[in-house]
From TrEMBL:
<dbReference type="InterPro" id="IPR018660">
    <property type="entry name" value="MliC"/>
</dbReference>
<protein>
    <submittedName>
        <fullName>Membrane-bound inhibitor of C-type lysozyme</fullName>
    </submittedName>
</protein>
<keyword id="KW-0472">Membrane</keyword>
<keyword id="KW-0449">Lipoprotein</keyword>
<feature type="signal peptide">
    <location>
        <begin position="1"/>
        <end position="20"/>
    </location>
</feature>
<keyword id="KW-0564">Palmitate</keyword>
<keyword id="KW-0732">Signal</keyword>
<dbReference type="InterPro" id="IPR036328">
    <property type="entry name" value="MliC_sf"/>
</dbReference>
<feature type="domain" description="C-type lysozyme inhibitor">
    <location>
        <begin position="39"/>
        <end position="100"/>
    </location>
</feature>
<dbReference type="Pfam" id="PF09864">
    <property type="entry name" value="MliC"/>
</dbReference>
């Protein structure tokens, strides 16, 4: 009986290995790169922001880039890091760059 059980286990292992599919991780829609959102701000500046889960990659009009981390917000979505702060809600956002006053922005 033991020999039969061992043979059955071996047969199941061989049969199961032939059934293994090519499993590759696929990106869920939320993990894919989103198109950047472009903002025109009241101070004359422009931003391009790519939102990716808990991060926002900001490219400023002068080409400077900043990666911001998502923070807890009472309303809307807020990202900040290294003196930069982006607080967005719908098509509007408030942008604060290092040492500059906050400015209102609108998605274009």
């Amino acid at each position: 009986m033991r020999r039969f059980a061992k043979g059955l286990v071996a047969l199941a292992a061989v049969a199961g290995s032939g059934c293994a599919a090519d499993v590759r991780p696929s990106l869920s829609p939320s993990a894919e790169l989103a198109d950047p959102v472009r903002y025109a701000c009241n101070d004359g500046s422009f931003l391009s922001v790519r939102f990716q889960g808990d991060a926002a990659d900001v490219t400023m009009v002068d080409g400077e880039k900043a990666r911001l981390s998502r923070l807890r917000a009472t309303s809307g979505v807020r990202y900040a890091a290294d003196g930069y702060d982006l607080w967005s809600q719908g098509d509007t956002a408030t942008w604060t760059a290092k040492g500059s006053p906050a400015t209102a922005c609108l998605a274009t």
